[in-house]
Amino acid sequence: MEQTWSRYLGYTLAALAGTTLIGLYFGYPLYGLFAGLVLYLLWSLHQIRRLAQWLSDPDTAGEAPQSIGIWGDLFERLHKLNKNYLRTQDELRTRIDRIQESTNAMRDGVIMTNARGALEWWNGSAEHLLGFRRSTDQGQYIYNLIRTPAFKAYFDSMDYREPLELHSPAKPHIHLQIQISLFGNNDRLIVAKDVTRLHQLEQMRRDFVSNVSHEMRTPLTVISGYLETLVDNADDLPPKWRRAINTMATQSFRMETLISDLILLSRIETGDQTENNEPTDIGRLITQICQDAQTLSGENQHDIRLEAISPQQLTGDENQLRSAFSNLIFNAVKYTPAKGRIRVSWFTDHKGGHLSVKDTGAGIDEVHIPRLTERFYRADPSRHKDTGGTGLGLAIVKHVLINHDGSLEIKSRFGEGSEFICHFPAERLASQTTD
Ligand code: ADP
């Protein structure tokens, strides 16, 4: 560039020297120089005018003006720059069009909002699933269009590890799963998936289990009743029948427990929220359960103690909470060897209420911990024969906690005992008891 510039300076000076020499020939060198400068100025002004005209032409893709010297070079460079710019713009537009076409072809609704939730862009499926309209909804706040309070809370929470399920605001029969991702400056990319079919199948599965359990309950009660009578009159039976009758009675008792757990689980699962939402005295509840646990422990003489009891009550369904806490406390008895220690506490802090059940029992290998709340999952399948468990206890606990906006934390080491903690949010804590 420096070289070209020196060359053009050389040409200009040479031209001015030429006009000065012509002036000198006529005896007026200064007039010659002046005339050269004026001509150069006029030519430059003309080039500037051509440049201005070319730049103001909307069709700037057209050929640039031709010229010589530094102006010719300048026009050439600007023309190249302009061509590159237009090509990049074309490429970007094609790419954006393709992305929009592909997202439009998606069956999931895709929505982009800014950090405050104002709609910026959405695809065709979002219009179909959520009822957004391009003519009126551009720039609207998304939570004014999806008015479910759970959605607003989810949107503001900034914690999008778990998806949210809700009914479509436009077509209530459509069940949607919403997943939000953050990008840019806290802008949101929202994906709405139609999970209606999955939801129906899940509902069918629940109904099936619930119906089968209810249907089986009556015949089983009859069989158990007869078996109980036979066990009571075992002395009248031939000796070879006694063992068989006793085994049948034990197994029918196990089946009854299993069926009542299945019925309880499906009731807890299907209830949208808790059936009764009333302040529950957790201290009283766990004191009763611990007394029952001591009876269950019997000859094993576990050392069961309540360590802390906060007077604060918990808003919820007492029956569901009783099922959850008894499952945890009875499990501690089942999985702790004789004379082991079991500590139960109910305490509150700024995060909410916490119920902890700690034992010095068998403990659980950490590989099993994430799966313990699955139905029929057992850390050690051989163990359930001794305990007579159904494998549904922790699944019941999990669903009761979901119904109470809570969560279950499991701390355990194989051979070193376990601690199960139910966490409840502060909003669920009711005022203190007066007595
Ligand atoms: P189960 O009827 O088999 O007790 P649960 O759902 O209550 O079913 O528990 C699932 C599994 O978790 C149990 O089979 C057992 O392996 C393990 N478990 C639960 N509580 C404890 C505990 N306190 N100590 C050790 N293992 C436990």
| C-alpha geometry | elongated
**Mind describing the biggest β-sheet?**
5 strands, antiparallel
Secondary structure: number of strands: 13
Q: Would you list the SSEs in sequence order as H and E? A: HHHEEHHHHEEEHHEHEEHEEHHEEE
**According to CATH, what is the class of the largest domain?**
Alpha Beta
Number of helices: 13
CATH architecture of the largest domain: 2-Layer Sandwich
| Spatial sequence of strands, sheet with the most strands | 2-1-5-4-3
Percent range for β-strand residues? 15-25%
What distance lies between the first and last C-alpha atoms, to the nearest angstrom? 92 Å
**Stretches with pLDDT under 50, minimum 5 residues:** none
The name CATH uses for the topology of the largest domain is Heat Shock Protein 90
- Unique ligands: adenosine-5'-diphosphate
How many domains is the backbone divided into?
A: 4
Q: CATH homologous superfamily of the largest domain?
A: Histidine kinase-like ATPase, C-terminal domain
Specify the helix fraction band.
Answer: 40-55%
TL;DR?
This protein is 53% helix and 18% strand.
Give structural notes.
With 435 residues, this protein is α+β, with helices and mostly antiparallel strands. The chain has 4 domains: 99 residues, no CATH class; 89 residues, PAS domain (Beta-Lactamase), CATH 3.30.450.20; 73 residues, Helix Hairpins (Orthogonal Bundle); 153 residues, Histidine kinase-like ATPase, C-terminal domain (Heat Shock Protein 90), CATH 3.30.565.10. The protein is built from 13 helices and 13 strands. The strands form 3 sheets. The protein has a 5-stranded antiparallel beta sheet, sandwiched between helices. The chain is elongated, with a radius of gyration of 40 Å. It starts with a helix and ends with a strand. The model has no long low-confidence stretch (mean pLDDT 90). Adenosine-5'-diphosphate binds next to α11, α12 and α13.
